[in-house]
Amino acid sequence: MAVSILGVSFSDRTMDETVALLVRAVEDGRTVHVVTANPEIVMQARRNPDYAAAVRGADLIVPDGVGILIGARLLGRAIPERVAGYDLLHRLMAEADRRRWRVFLLGATPEANEGALRALQRQYPGAVYVGHHHGYFGPDEEEAVVRRIEDARPHLLFVSLGVPRQELFIARHKHRFTGVCMGTGGSFDVLAG
Ligand code: UDP
Fold first, then answer.
1. Is 115 in the pocket of ligand 1 (CB under 6 A)?
2. 162 Cβ below 6 A of ligand 1
3. Which GO terms describe its molecular function (predicted)?
């Protein structure tokens, strides 16, 4: 159930199927690293071997962007629809709202991080916001940030540290987390408005 484009293996599930899969994983207490991959990520993976390893090690790579769908079609394969990161974030938050999941937001500037938190709290009041941290910390602070996430035990960890940092961060630390860990790029900036 995958379509390979330039060495990156994309899921060919619809948005609904993707959400159902991730809900099951969270309920089963599994860890799922989700990469919402666009052509920028594919090109970055070709340039940067560490990044390629982080992406290859992900559990689910979904096609964020029509470029990937067009690429698949050129290879004679079909991906049914786009699974955009920002839309997937909202779909997962709707589940978190209904199921009272714990949510942690890592990344963006302190203002955007807090703005995103406020926006999600307004839209999804049933979710439990167990922690948040901005994305401008140095290597010496990383362990403290990871410890905070670990202690908060989020079902959903959204990581907006930009490409390639967000996928590298998740790959490095996911063995200490349970639930969905997903790089969310500029989503917090959009949520904060
Ligand atoms: N970001 C961060 N720490 C960093 C670099 C970026 O938290 O060291 C955040 C940035 O504030 C933005 C998000 O990561 O909210 C995405 O950044 P950008 O648009 O530069 O990355 P890309 O679109 O390439 O993923």
1. no
2. yes
3. N-acetylglucosaminyldiphosphoundecaprenol N-acetyl-beta-D-mannosaminyltransferase activity
6 exposed, middle or buried (CB, 10 Å; 0-12, 13-18, 19+)? Answer: exposed
> How are beta strands 8-11 and 2-5 bridged, if at all?
antiparallel
Residue 1 confidence (pLDDT): 63
Q: Which CATH architecture is the domain 2-192 placed in?
A: 3-Layer(aba) Sandwich (3.40)
Q: Which residues does residue 131 pair with via DSSP β-bridges, in sequence order?
A: 104
Q: Which of 44, 48, 160, 163 to mutate to test the pocket of ligand 1 (most atoms within 8 A of CB)?
A: 160
ipTM: 0.95
Say if ligand 1 is within 6 A of residue 189 CB: yes
CA geometry: angle 160, 109, 85, nearest 5 deg: 25
Mark 60-74 as b/e (b = at least 16 C-beta within 10 Å). bbbbbbebbbebbee
Q: Is 185 in the pocket of ligand 1 (CB under 6 A)?
A: yes
**What pLDDT, on the 0 to 100 scale, is given for residue 6?**
79
Centroid of ligand 1 to alpha carbon of 1 (angstroms): 31
Say what the pLDDT of residue 38 is: 87
Positions of the chain with pLDDT under 70 = 1
How much is the pLDDT for 40?
A: 85
Query: Tokens 């992406």 belong to which residue?
Result: 55
Q: Is 48 in the pocket of ligand 1 (CB under 6 A)?
A: no
pTM of the model: 0.97
Q: Which two tokens stand for residue 73?
A: 């079609």
